[in-house]
From TrEMBL:
GO terms for biological process: glutaminyl-tRNAGln biosynthesis via transamidation; translation. The gene is gatB. It comes from Natranaerovirga pectinivora. This is Aspartyl/glutamyl-tRNA(Asn/Gln) amidotransferase subunit B. Allows the formation of correctly charged Asn-tRNA(Asn) or Gln-tRNA(Gln) through the transamidation of misacylated Asp-tRNA(Asn) or Glu-tRNA(Gln) in organisms which lack either or both of asparaginyl-tRNA or glutaminyl-tRNA synthetases. The reaction takes place in the presence of glutamine and ATP through an activated phospho-Asp-tRNA(Asn) or phospho-Glu-tRNA(Gln). Belongs to the GatB/GatE family. GatB subfamily. It catalyses: L-glutamyl-tRNA(Gln) + L-glutamine + ATP + H2O = L-glutaminyl-tRNA(Gln) + L-glutamate + ADP + phosphate + H(+); L-aspartyl-tRNA(Asn) + L-glutamine + ATP + H2O = L-asparaginyl-tRNA(Asn) + L-glutamate + ADP + phosphate + 2 H(+). InterPro entries: Asn/Gln-tRNA_amidoTrfase_suB/E, Asn/Gln-tRNA_Trfase_suB/E_cat, Asn/Gln_amidotransferase, Asn/Gln_tRNA_amidoTrase-B-like, GatB, GatB_C_1, GatB_Yqey_C_2, Gln-tRNA_amidoTrfase_suB_CS. Its EC number is 6.3.5.-. It is an enzyme of class 6 (ligase). Keywords: ATP-binding, Ligase, Nucleotide-binding, Protein biosynthesis, Transferase. Pfam families: GatB_N (PF02934), GatB_Yqey (PF02637). The lineage of its organism: Bacteria, Bacillati, Bacillota, Clostridia, Lachnospirales.
């Protein structure tokens, strides 16, 4: 039996750190980094006699995320103690939510192979993060409690995904929504967004789920896809060889490209949940929910539709631009100030994305304002500079932050459009390229491109390309 005879079933548990300035139950900073155990206090390290106080902003951010993902919002919810023993959890329990989460029954639309698919969300609940274990070779393990108490939302999906590809698409879409909602910076390299991949396989046509495994704390879209691909193949191979899938927690080893068993998987009842006695229930009035709903920005799906109709850009380009709220805002400001919004999108996708990737910077790190990108586009649209000169100007803008008009003036880069000067140069080029001219006159019209190249070289790229080609053809056609 082949892999095609099986269906892959995947659900995710996504942990997202909220961008509050202080932790969920105390006043310690949530700032990333810092020396170990310097961003903690008796409350977040679980000292006896301390009492937590819920950060109100945590609730508001969670509701924003819930509304942005089409969830229902509970007017009454509570917090619970999730009990387990692990060195990075100083209280030996984690404050989370069990039976009454803040958000529930949501959905996120993704596009797979040109078709829209809905991925259900079971719930979004708030909880506190644990610390971080640091494993020192030959010296045992140390623990850093700086992350203890950093506020999280956990987003639990239904088992609706059917391929590793869908995992990557969903995670990117969810990150985009969370960024638009302004609840998190979603920096996966810093652990602000990470996911657990729950995966099982079953024979096609079966309605019963197979035994699932969970791959923990994956902090990259690419790793999530690779881990799902490997685990699906491993499970199918095990079943086909007569083995049994064990419900367990595994981790992704990117160096070896495999998933590795960590421990047998605990069931929910093993955590011995009970209501958190030190915290009051969370009451979220309808009026507050509606106030938060009205404060949400236009979401990426709606922006995509509007950009296609309003600015005439392609669905593919719109997808790339709206993936980041920063980039979408940048594009829209530049588009409104430019003479050609489609050209603006081309510059963003081909040049700006390339430079950000090259410099390993994020979308909000463009070193010049969108109005200056519009200014550059307008210079090209008005034939003041050529597209090739535009790229040179862009490179200097990126390095210096100067306006394109300033760079063009300082460097003397204005396009040569004087007919008389171009005609004289064209005659010189034609007279010194007899073979190319002969090819053109014999019917090889593409030969004019060689002459065009000579003209652009002669003018250091500053000649108006359209005028150059017209002048060359006029002179050559008179020679026939």
């Amino acid at each position: 039996m082949s892999y095609q005879d099986y269906e892959i079933v995947i659900g995710l548990e996504v942990h997202c750190e909220l961008k509050t300035e202080s932790k969920i139950f105390c006043g310690c900073t949530t700032k990333f980094g810092g020396d170990p155990n310097t961003h903690c206090c008796p409350i977040c390290t679980g000292m006896p006699g301390t009492l937590p106080v819920l950060n109100e902003n945590v609730v508001e951010y969670a509701v924003r995320a819930g509304l942005a993902t089409n969830c229902k919002i509970a007017e009454f919810s509570k917090q619970d103690r999730k009990n387990y023993f692990y060195p990075d959890l100083p209280k030996a329990y984690q404050v989370s939510q069990f039976d009454l989460p803040l958000c529930y029954e949501g959905e996120v639309e993704i596009e797979v192979n040109g078709e829209v698919k809905k991925v259900g969300l079971t719930r979004i609940h708030i909880e506190e993060d644990a610390g971080k274990l640091l494993h020192e070779a030959g010296e045992g393990s140390l623990v850093d409690y700086n992350r203890c108490g950093v506020p999280l939302i956990e987003i639990v999906t239904e088992p609706d995904m059917r391929s590793p590809e869908e995992v990557g698409i969903f995670m990117q879409k969810l990150r985009s929504i969370l960024l638009y909602s302004d609840v998190s910076d979603c920096k996966m390299n810093e652990g602000s967004l990470r996911c657990d991949v729950n995966l099982s396989v079953r024979k096609k046509g079966s309605t019963e789920f197979g035994t699932r495994t969970e791959m923990k704390n994956i902090n990259s879209f690419n790793f999530a896809v690779k881990a799902a691909e490997y685990e699906a193949k491993r499970q199918i191979k095990t079943i086909e060889s007569g083995g049994t899938i064990v419900q367990e927690t595994r981790r992704w080893d990117d160096v070896k490209g495999v998933t590795v068993s960590m421990r047998s998987k605990e069931e929910a009842h093993d955590y011995r949940y009970f209501p958190e006695p030190d915290l009051m229930p969370i009451i979220t009035p309808k009026e507050k929910i509606e106030e938060i709903r009205k404060s949400l920005p236009e979401m990426p799906d709606l922006r995509k539709v509007r950009y296609i109709s309003e600015y005439g850009i392609s669905p593919k380009d719109a997808d790339l631009i709206v993936a980041s709220r920063n980039m979408a805002d940048y594009f829209e400001t530049a588009a409104k100030a430019s003479k050609n919004a489609k050209t603006v999108s081309n510059w963003i996708i081909t040049e700006i994305f390339s430079k950000l990737n090259e410099d390993q910077k994020e979308e909000g790190s463009i070193p010049f304002k969108p109005e200056l990108l519009a200014e550059l586009v307008n210079l090209i649209e008005e034939d003041i500079i050529s597209n090739s000169i535009g790229k040179k100007v862009f490179a200097q803008m990126w390095e210096t932050g100067k306006s394109p008009n300033t760079i063009v003036e300082e460097e003397g880069l204005k396009q040569i459009s004087d007919d008389g000067a171009l005609i004289d140069m064209a005659k010189e080029v034609i007279s010194s390229n007899e073979k190319v001219v002969a090819d053109y006159l014999s019917g090889k019209e593409q030969a004019v491109q060689s002459l065009m190249g000579q003209m652009m070289k002669k003018t250091k790229g500053q000649a108006n390309p359209k005028k150059v080609i017209d002048i060359l053809k006029d002179i050559l056609n008179q020679m026939k």
